[in-house]
Design a protein that fits this description.
31 strands; 30 helices; Isoleucyl-tRNA Synthetase, domain 2; four-stranded parallel beta sheet; alpha+beta; about 20% strand
């Protein structure tokens, strides 16, 4: 018989079993819903007018937005949800007004791909998935304020996503004020002449298209023709963060190519410094901060102009401007906009044969190489490949410090996504430039004195010499000499010279690129943008929001041969002519006009950039969020200078995606005065992952883990030996265990306890269904300590507990409370177990005060059984809002502690003494101990070092 249906259950009709757990859990979940137990009140107006809320500290606790998958939950998914629930429950019991809720991030590719395959509308499948997932989560007893839940696909929600987009579109970044400002203020500057137009004409002399182009160069949301990651197999473009290291789409594993398309972008780069600096005030894991710092990638250097006859300047960014005299060639990214302008009709006479790639003209060579480079990801292009590839453009640029004509190449190891998309190549002192120069037989000049014996003739070197410590050599012209200077001095001197001669200046560069914000999909938020007959973009007025998705016959973007880079997107929305082409009066005084709607949709990240704000005020149809409510839950306060959510729990995989994007949106909204918080999430906690064993047969195919048998240390499936490795849990690996299975076998409280007891929350751990029974037995012992299994009567007595029990109880209270506050939930459970075992061994009925304290300790961890026991103990109010027990310090401190007495570093005695003993008292006791006296053998004492109450160290004379 199973653990949950044994003969003992029949003999003890009131024993805690899975069946009883199911009944208890269902009843209390219904009760909590009916009573609104977890509903967190909002302030109404100023907090001073809300004395009850003003008297309570608040706590806003969030989990990362779940996506409603059709596969439902496996036991790995709720790990973080259970942890935040335990923490939230403990915070309620310690007097906090707790906001804890959960919604669904429901736009995105999975539902769209399912719609393409089946013809099912994405909304239908998504809402079905939400219903299923909601039922699974409810069964776990999570204490969410359900009034505040929503899905991003609800028009009432994405109305405000579109509204925020328009705030960003209608804003520009004022570098002088270091904040975003309304675009109308920029227009006013142009109109008044305070800010000149790029070509010096009056604003009134410009036509509408010219004005739109100028404003587009400043808007925080703008459309541009730019190199993008194009995935023909998905029929859409992807952000850099959505492309894997091997140049394929994160979803679908399709090849990704570089292509130039007109796309919407967010000017997140304007906030690079603030995004970097404000990390210091956040309580985040250092590893996540480091990832964001590296992704933003701030570096100081100089911009230098290399003139090209008849084509203007090639501008490079370099952090080693001190090595300018060593630049012997240049390299542009294949996508660089100057390439077409600088290539001559024919190869110059001096062209080295190896530079041409075997092509008859520069144009032919460049076209062929660009196609080759487009098939590689940025990661592949930057890999330290042995063979460097590239081709000569046929053009030469002038080195501004040496006056030399240097050939200009294109090569895939230079990216448009960093710096200016162009480099000055100093092959003697850069490993990649060295390899390229060797491959193309280009000259090398030593300008940094080697610290070894290789000499200064770089043509004889085996590799580049790079150093920030060495002195400069061979770096002088008629006006300036860097010879003999260190790197820091040389950089400063050459930077001043460049600025003085108008060919460069010191500057700061960032690795961070603007956020590509367009997707060629159906299942996403429509852009609230229309284009007039001149192609000028116009924002929809707020009265026309939400702009809802139309019905379409075909949900798929037009996909292509995954390996064909020479294709153009065709979106599902573009095929609905009645929706695309409209006559509207935008209220701008122009009257009704013909417009064309934007047919791209927003990326799936859009809805999760601001959802913390919607939780605060989910039914507000007039404002993004009520200012007083936002200030209460998220406003700056002591220890949280930029405001934000008090605790945000989720996976580390979103470090440079969702977390960076949400920070950007929060800062824009803060600058424009819509919110008081400049950061969305003050404290971040990354939970680990629940892993599971994957079993594979001889073909390498995963077999159902539930059907595998272990015999003599080996594993078999249907008689065939299989391999076993620890991996992710999931449907495709046939090792998923659903929470429904565990709840059915043991109850939700057991599942909650097991997931929290498996190990520290921030590390990954393997799932073992066989070990779940340990927590089930803990709950059975807890039940048995309070309820008679035969009669069902409560067995507690109104008697005072003994001192030993009081000490065990108050140590547990002290330890469990601290562990819950610190998210050390595995050790909290260990302390509860230790207390419960002590009470079991002590025998006899529990004193009521001990039983009630025990139930309160358990309540955040196993809320259903705690609620049931609390009611059976005679209480009519819910355990959820009871005060968490407070430890009596007198019982927490041990009666005695062990003091070690050392002589010459060797332990000679151990004394059991009072924790409050003084140094003088302890020294006297130690010197009088017989073992110490014998060990000294009459020798005098030079020094006694006392560290009461744990250590005495005696140094003989």
């Amino acid at each position: 018989m199973s653990e949950t249906n044994s003969a003992a259950d029949v003999a003890a009709p009131h024993r805690y079993t899975a069946a009883m757990a199911a009944d208890i859990e269902a009843r209390w979940q219904d009760f909590w819903d009916a009573e609104g137990t977890y509903e967190a009140p909002n302030p109404t107006g100023d907090l001073a007018d809300n004395p009850e809320l003003a008297a309570k500290p608040k706590k806003f606790i969030m989990d990362m937005f779940p996506y409603p998958s059709g596969a439902g939950l496996h036991v790995g998914h709720p790990l973080g949800y259970i942890a935040t629930d335990v923490f939230a429950r403990h915070q309620r019991m310690t007097g906090h007004n707790v906001l804890h809720t959960l919604g669904f991030d429901a736009f995105g590719l999975p539902a769209e791909q399912y719609a393409v395959q089946t013809g099912t509308h994405p909304r239908i499948s998504t809402e079905s998935n939400i219903e299923n997932m909601t039922a699974q989560l409810r069964r776990l007893g999570l204490g969410h304020d359900k009034r505040r839940s929503f899905a991003t696909i609800e028009s009432e929600y994405y109305k405000w996503t579109q509204w925020i987009f328009l705030q960003i579109f209608n804003s520009w970044y004022d570098a002088d004020a270091d904040r975003a400002r309304p675009i109308a203020e920029l227009v006013a500057q142009f109109e008044s002449g305070e800010r000149p137009t790029p070509d010096g004409r009056d604003w009134s002399a410009l036509n509408a298209a010219e004005r739109a182009d100028i404003l587009g160069d400043h808007r925080l949301a703008y459309a541009s023709d730019a190199p993008v990651n194009w995935s023909p197999g998905l029929g859409t473009v992807l952000a850099n963060e959505e492309v894997t290291a091997d140049g394929r789409s994160e979803r679908g594993n399709f090849p990704v190519f570089k292509a130039k398309l007109r796309q919407w972008n967010m000017r997140i780069t304007a906030y690079a410094d603030r995004l970097l600096n404000d990390l210091d005030g956040l309580d985040w894991p250092e590893a996540i901060k480091l990832q964001q710092r590296n992704w933003i990638g701030r570096s100081e250097g100089a911009r230098v102009a290399f003139p090209v006859d008849g084509a203007g300047d090639i501008t490079v960014f370099t952090t080693r401007q001190d090595t300018l005299f060593g630049a012997t060639y240049m390299v542009l990214a294949p996508e660089h906009e100057l390439v077409e302008r600088i290539i001559p009709a024919a190869w110059p006479e001096s062209t080295h044969p190896v530079w041409t790639g075997g092509h008859t003209s520069p144009a032919e060579a460049v076209t062929a190489y660009r196609k080759q480079a487009a098939a590689k990801s940025d990661v592949e292009r930057q890999a330290e490949a042995k063979d460097k590839t590239g081709v000569f453009t046929g053009a030469y640029a002038t080195n501004p410090v040496s006056g030399e004509q240097v050939p200009v190449f294109i090569a895939d190891y230079v990216l448009m996504g960093y710096g200016t998309g162009a480099i000055m190549a100093v092959p003697a002192h850069d490993a990649r430039d060295f390899a390229f120069a060797r491959a193309f037989e280009l000259p090398m000049r030593c300008v940094v004195q080697p610290s070894d014996d290789r000499g200064t003739d770089a043509s004889t070197w085996e590799d580049a010499f790079a150093s920030y410590e060495a002195k400069l050599v061979n770096s002088a012209n008629d006006e300036i000499s860097l010879d003999g200077l260190g790197v820091v001095e040389a950089k400063a001197k050459i930077t001043d010279w460049l600025k003085e001669h108008g060919v460069g200046e010191g500057t700061v560069n960032f690795r961070l690129r603007d956020w590509l914000f367009s997707r060629q999909r159906y299942w996403g938020e429509p852009f609230p943008i229309v284009y007039d007959e001149e192609g000028i973009a116009h924002p929809l007025p707020e009265s026309m929001l939400p702009l809802e998705l139309p019905e379409v016959d075909d949900y798929s973007p037009r996909t292509f041969d995954p390996d064909d880079a020479d294709t153009q997107p065709e979106t599902p929305l573009s095929r609905n002519a009645d929706w695309v082409n409209v006559t509207l009066d935008l209220g701008d005084g122009a009257g009704p006009r013909n417009y064309r709607r934007e047919t791209n949709t927003m990326p799936n990240w859009a809805g999760s950039c601001w959802y913390e704000l919607r939780y605060l005020d989910p039914n507000n149809a007039d404002k993004l969020v009520d200012p007083a409510i936002e200030q209460y839950w998220m406003g700056p306060r002591e220890g949280q200078p930029t405001g934000g959510v008090d605790l945000y729990v989720g996976g580390a995989e979103h470090a440079v995606l969702h977390l960076l994007y949400a920070r950007f949106w929060s800062k824009v909204l803060h600058d424009l005065g819509h919110v008081s918080s400049a950061e969305p999430f003050h404290k971040l906690y990354n939970q680990g992952m629940i892993q599971a064993f994957v079993y594979r047969d001889s073909r390498g195919i995963a077999v159902p883990a539930a059907e595998v048998e272990e015999r003599d240390g080996a594993y078999y499936h249907q008689g065939e030996k299989v391999s076993r490795v620890l991996g992710k849990m999931g449907k495709s690996l046939k090792n998923a265990v659903t929470p429904d299975e565990i709840c059915g076998e043991y109850g939700a409280d057991t599942l909650r306890l097991y997931e929290m007891a498996m190990g520290p929350l921030d590390v990954s751990r393997p799932w073992d269904t066989r070990a779940v029974v340990g927590q089930y037995r803990l709950l059975q012992r807890l039940w048995r300590n309070i309820v008679d299994e035969e009669s069902g009567e409560v067995t507690v007595v109104d008697a005072e507990p003994g001192e030993e029990t009081l000490r065990a109880l108050h140590k547990a209270i002290d330890g469990v409370g601290g562990d819950m506050a610190g998210m050390r939930l595995n050790t909290a459970i260990a302390k509860v177990t230790e207390l419960n075992n002590h009470l079991t061994k002590a025998g006899g009925p529990l004193p009521r005060s001990v039983a009630e304290s025990l139930v309160l300790l358990v309540a955040p961890l196993a809320p259903h059984i705690a609620e049931e026991l609390w009611r059976r103990l005679g209480h009519t109010d819910s355990v959820v809002h009871q005060d968490f027990p407070v430890a009596d310090p007198a019982y927490v401190i041990d009666e005695t502690v062990t003091c070690v007495v050392q002589i010459k570093g060797k332990v000679r005695a151990r004394l059991e003494i009072s924790p409050s003993i003084t140094d003088a008292e302890l020294e006297t006791l130690a010197l009088a101990d017989p073992a110490v006296v014998a060990a000294l053998e009459g020798a005098g004492i030079r020094k006694v070092i006392v560290r009461a109450p744990k250590l005495v160290n005696i140094v003989p004379a």
